[in-house]
């Protein structure tokens, strides 16, 4: 199977997931620091969704670290479909 840049279990994938995680954390920090953010329901939902994005990205970054450390191949069709559906959601 051809090696794609940013695919799960590669250094590129780890860098992309770490970036995704850090940007989600930064956006949560910026939104929470806004004056009166709790007064707007949509803003609270956006913060909650970014929290889920942060957890998803962190979990997949940990999985990438494990795959790199143990030299596992994560290019399994079932795992790839799980990543696609999770990222799409």
Explained architecture:
This protein is an all-alpha fold and 89 residues long. It contains three helices and no strands. Helix 1 (11-32) packs antiparallel against helix 2 (41-70). The longest helix is centred in the middle third of the chain and has 30 residues, at 41-70.
Please trace the helix and strand order, writing H or E for each element: HHH
How many β-strand stretches? 0
* Helix vs. strand class: mainly alpha
Tell me the Rg in angstroms: 16 Å
Low-pLDDT sequence parts:
none
Q: What coarse outline follows from CA principal-axis ratios?
A: elongated
* Head-to-tail CA distance between termini: 26 Å
Q: How confident overall, as mean pLDDT?
A: 84
Tell me about the biggest sheet? Answer: none
Q: So how many helices?
A: 3
Approximately how much beta-strand content do the residues carry?
A: under 5%
Q: Helical content, roughly?
A: over 70%
Task: Characterize this entry briefly.
The protein contains 3 helices and no strands.
Topology:
Blueprint: H1 11-32, H2 41-70, H3 77-88
Primary descriptors:
single chain; 89 residues; mainly alpha
